[in-house]
Amino acid sequence: MKPFLIIAFLSLSLISFGQEERKEDWDNEKVSNPEPVLNSTNEFRRNVRIGGEFGLSSVNFNARTPLYGMFFALKPQITYVFNDFFEAGISTGYSYMGTFGTVNYHWFEFGPIARFYPTEGLFIQGEWNITRASSNIRDVKNSDTYDNFFVGGGMRNAISETSYILYGIKFNLKKNEYTFDQIIPSAFFTFHFGL
User: Could you tell me which CATH number the domain at 47-194 has?
Assistant: First the structure.
């Protein structure tokens, strides 16, 4: 029994001594790392925001004979906060509207987005994108590509130091088939989270 206790005591001593050496090695390693590189990496990550829009609603396609369908949109964004007044990045998106049968519309979009914060709690936004639209209505297929330019603004509510919610209204200034040759306002609500 005594040899077992002696071996256990020596093993615990070696483990403790080994951890102490590793801690010293780690401290030496941290000193040898250049601090500005570490700080710049953390600064970059601290200013990146990931978020976007999500939409879900029902749609009636025919006023005379009810033909109900669904609208679904998922529009992720990744932006970088340059300073307290300016943020810019890339916006993408996919939207579907249809009945999953006789009426189907699909929209894929991609383009840059920029936000200006003139005062705390308010923002102005500009967004340009290329939209690839396709439709299949009772087996008649059609597709086209449009460019859109949205301007708008609204309110910003902070959730934490690096996370916030934006809600507002934007207008597509490009008149095309996608907008039925009109300037159409659309409300939006987006979430943004820091890394």
Answer: 2.40.160.20
- Could you give the CA distance from residue 84 to residue 195 in angstroms, rounded to a whole number? 17
192 vs 77: CA distance, rounded Å: 8
Distance in angstroms (rounded) separating the CA atoms of residues 130 and 108: 8
Ranges of each domain in the chain: 2-33, 47-194
Q: Which two tokens stand for residue 125?
A: 């936004």
d(CA 52, CA 79): 10
**Does the model's pTM come out above 0.90?**
no
List, in order, residues 6 or more apart from 12 with CB less than 8 Å away: none
Q: Indicate the DSSP class of residue 179.
A: G
Strands (E), the chain: 48-60, 68-83, 86-98, 103-116, 122-137, 140-158, 164-172, 185-194
Sign of the torsion formed by the C-alpha atoms of 61, 63, 68 and 73: positive
User: How confident is residue 98, by pLDDT bands cut at 50, 70 and 90?
Assistant: confident
| 155 three-state secondary structure | strand
